[in-house]
Amino acid sequence: MPQDFQKAIMQRMEQPGWVTTRGILRDPTGQADPDDYVAVEETMKELAGLGQIVLWRLIVLDDGVEMLAAARPGLELDKDLEQRGAWAKAERYEP
């Protein structure tokens, strides 16, 4: 797995405890190279397989855009977003 993606994901697990593919690529509009998204998702799936993160499907409420998100184990991202009245909802992702 690309070390820079792995490092960025694990840093975000410390604070705020979760991150999306767009967050890792620093691409708020989702216009980055699709191959970069594939690489980040594969890295997330590998880390999840090692038990280091938990995967979620993040769904943006305004437009229904979906993206993969990683959260630290024990963080219930769906409940966290709901409590904060966030702009998205989360569902557990099982590859």
Question: Explain this structure to me?
Answer:
With 95 residues, the chain is of the alpha+beta class. Helices cover 43% and strands 22% of the residues. It contains 4 helices and 4 strands; from the N terminus they run H-E-H-H-E-E-H-E. It has a 4-stranded antiparallel sheet. Strand 2 (54-60) and strand 3 (66-71) form a beta hairpin. The radius of gyration is 12 Å and the shape is globular. It starts with a helix and ends with a strand.
In short:
By secondary structure, this protein is of the alpha+beta class. The chain is 43% helix and 22% strand.
Strand content: 15-25%
Number of helices: 4
Rg on CA atoms, Å: 12 Å
Average pLDDT works out at 94
The global form is: globular
Helix content: 40-55%
* Largest beta sheet: strand ordering: 1-3-2-4
Q: What is the N-to-C order of secondary-structure elements (H for helix, E for strand)?
A: HEHHEEHE
| Biggest sheet features | 4 strands, antiparallel
Q: Class by helix and strand content?
A: alpha+beta
Low-pLDDT ranges: none
What is the β-strand count?
A: 4
Separation, N- and C-terminal Cα atoms: 17 Å
Which keywords apply here?
95 residues; alpha+beta; 22% strand; 43% helix; 4 helices; 4-stranded antiparallel β-sheet
Give the SSE map.
Blueprint (H helix, E strand, L loop, with lengths): L2 H12 L3 E3 H5 L8 H16 L4 E7 L5 E6 L5 H8 L3 E5 L3
Antiparallel strand pairs: 1-3, 2-3, 2-4
